[in-house]
Every structure is written in C-alpha cells, then in structure tokens.
Amino acid sequence: MPLLLRPLRSLLSSIGPRVSFGFTLRPYSGTPSLLKNTNLPPRPKPPPEEEIEESFLKGSGPGGQKINKTNSAVQLKHLPTGIVVKSQATRSRSQNRTIARQLLADKLDQLARGDQSRSAVVGEFKRKKKASSAKKSRRKYRKLEEEKQAKATQQDTVEDESEFEEEYLLDQERPNSQK
Predict the structure, then answer these.
(1) How many CB atoms neighbour CB 115 within 10 A?
(2) Domains present along the chain, CATH in parentheses
C-alpha cells in the first residue's frame, strides 16, 4: 500500500509515540465534557413485554400524506400502572417501538424514584447550567454598561475641563486687550 493512501491514524502510529502534533487521535464527541463527569443514574430498562400492551396508530402532523396513511406511530400502555406513551418520532415503526419503550421506561423511573430518577437529575443539571449561563450573561452586560457609563463620564469630564480651559484663556485675553 503506498504511503499516501494509508489512513492518518496508521501513519501517525508508524512514526512513533514520541512525536506530538498537538492534537489527539480520539474521535470527536458531541457530548459535553461536564455531562460526562457527573455521576448520573443508569438509564432505566424497559419493563417486561408481559406488562406492556402495544398498539400501532396512524400518524398525524407534518410529513404529508404518507404519514397519515401508515400505522407507524406506536402507543404503549403499561398494564400495572396505566401509563400510556405514544411515539411517532420517525417514519419507521421499529424505531418508534424502541423510542416508545425508552419513554415508558423513563416515565416508570420517574414514578418510582421521583427526584432521584435519571430524567430529574439530568433536568436539574440542565437547569443549573442554564441559570449559570444567564448569570454570566447578566454579569457581562452589566460590566459593559458600567464601562460605557465610565467612558461617558470620563468624556464629560474632559469636555468640562476643555470648556474651563477655553474660559480661562478667554479671561486671560480680555485683560490684555483692555490694557
């Protein structure tokens, strides 16, 4: 295989571990690093199939005639609790089944564990992050406004000083012209 056609990873590994290019070879991850570091509860498992009543419905909403004609929306009912969940996130029935089961598992987790459930912990984390961001934004714009006012005050002071100097010079010239 020619050197030019080899993937970057194998090229860099063949150079040796001592060479640093200033970047890592890990793939890009869209998950924020702060979310990774928090100890979140594990994702809840869907309930057993015996406790679920599944039905397929016609979809509604955007998507045109196709979504209105096919039974791709999934509705799950948890028999012991009576909780009903509906999913029509995609056009695929199998994907909607998976999504509906996960939604049902989240709802049951929320019901059983309350504030300790995964969705509550993640929601609290996001709420705190949003509040922190809003506070940072308020602080930033307050600082900008203070700087703007300080600059305006400084400019007014400079204008007052220049007016004072002009008046002083005019006063100095008047006695000279009268003499």
Answers:
(1) 9
(2) 49-116 (3.30.160.20)
